[in-house]
Here is the input.
Amino acid sequence: MTYFLGIDTGGTFTDAVLLDADRNIVASAKSLTTRFDLALGIAASLDKLPANLLSQVGLVSLSTTLTTNSVVEGKGSPVCVLLAGYDPPQVKASGLAELLGSEAIVALAGGHDAGGLPVQPLDEAAARAAILHHAPRVSAFAISASFGVRNPEHELQLRSWVEALCDLPVTCGHELASSLGAPRRAMTVALNARMISHVKALIDSVKRTLRAREIDAPLMMVKGDGTLINVASALQRPVGTVLSGPAASVLGACALSGLENAVVADMGGTTTDIAVVRNGRPELSFDGAMIGQWRPMVEAVKVYAIGLGGDSEVRFQGGDGLAIGPRRVVPLSLLAYEHPHVLAVLERQQTESPHGSQIRFAQRLQADEATVARLPDDELRAWELLAKGPVDLECANMDDRALSKALARLERKGLVIYSGFTPSDAAHVLGMSNHWNTEAAIFGARIWARQMRHLYGLGTWVLGDALAPSRQVVDKVIDTICQKLIEAGLNDAGQMNEGNANKMAALLTQMALHHRTAGTGPAAVFSLQFASGVPLVAVGAPAASYYPRVAHGLGVQLVMPPHADVANAVGAVLGQVSQRVHITVSQPVKGVFRVFTQAGPRDFDRLEPAIALAQDLAGQEATTRALQAGAASVIVEFSQEDNNVNNDIDGNMFFEARVTATASGAPVIKRYGGHA
Here is the structure.
């Protein structure tokens, strides 16, 4: 018999499930994610599955929160972005300076106009100089040219120079997005470039682990729209795997619950992701889903994602007071569970004068060799020291300031993670969870509460009380989840934009949850309740700790299906390979119909042959991509969106059409026993 292996690498846990030919769960396992070497956590989960069944695995599929967390936390490898034809307002609107720093951005003369015609020649000398200058300092290059989706000539030329001058990955904007909007396209290609080394490390880890267990099967990854691609395609377009974990969790939640209409909420270590499912299918966001503060141009499940999870840092935020996330830290309960000597340090810190470096330990994350090789001497020294275990930042700040500064730079580069007080710790203090070291959580709650009181004036907790601050943290988590669920409902209704929905959701959350603090008194005039026919399906490891109270507060039916804690891994093996290609046809001048192809614009004097060419090219490209992405065979479907304009002279006139070809099919499966 052929079995299917699903793996999900989250920020906290790595899950693995085995499904049989009928997609029934045969076995499942969960292990801690080993951040410094992902292969160890994957291996630990696989070793808990029946070895005799692993030898009959015909397909391995991987979902991950790695790329999503990278976007939410603003982390990634150093990259250089080459922008051709961008003006200063466009560069500013892209947000690249905030994402990467201004030194990573190179603006060059060049680019095309809306009709795909060159505006000015590409500055070859400046481009070559920039490539040679940045190559020793970055892990990849990202390229975007003004109206590159209408004519990719300058993007392709820049890529050829990068490939000629250095041996680094390079991505072009037109390969990732077909929509207009130069600033967002630049941000999308930059995010893609800085993810490449991280995704490669993950894929290499999985491959090593599979080889060691003699699992010889096609390896796929889940895209943000719930479809599958092989790992070769994922390495070229890792940004496409943003929201991979949430997409897999939605598919898994629907399969495990048997519901076709529901609100799915997936709470992990770093994010909480909410999606609306109708008729068994999640709604897709073709213009890109909002992930933290960014909206890359990737087609993905329409997810309302917030930087709130079990491992989110609980902190002070000016103006708001208590805030949770978006930065992920190592929970103190988990840190002491893995490194027991930390407990003595926390116990001592309870009696010391409060300061910001208490409860802070630095731990090493996984990094590729090229990134480590580029570290300056002081950061390399810190990196090598971390190989021995967590470093106490309090001691580093007092005894070795150079080490402390180097660790801070490594953390900003995404190579180091700090510890801190988290919702997971609060749950341990309150007895809602007992996975790790509860004593460390209690010590951490006391130290953190004192930090908040003395450093920021936050809270009125009694000195030494761990329960009250933990309750406030849990209440904040529940309020935030409720607000996001209400916001998702308002957005789903389509009656207001995101900004207004956010403000309204905050007000409605206060009103809906008022009963929690109001005590006895007159009955409320206003109450809020979700639609009775749309249950809330909660999945993810921390879900059981929070969602019963969330469901009660909102008056919604809660469904937590069996195996909810490994829903992502289940969903990972349920998708198909699917590739969409869009080609635009416009009428720039009356009687001229222009097709924007990869080879440049082509003009026709009639609309019909222009549309026919767009369909032919889109169908060929979608088929090629789907087969390259791991489909056994494909079926191609076409759709067309027309944009017509009305004027007094010509009446209803064709302006533009977007032709889409979608090639879909089942992935290649290695078969055992004659069937799958």
In short: Residues 328-473 form one domain. The first strand starts at residue 3 and ends at 9. Confidence is low (pLDDT under 50) at residues 516-521. The chain is about 40% helix and 25% strand.
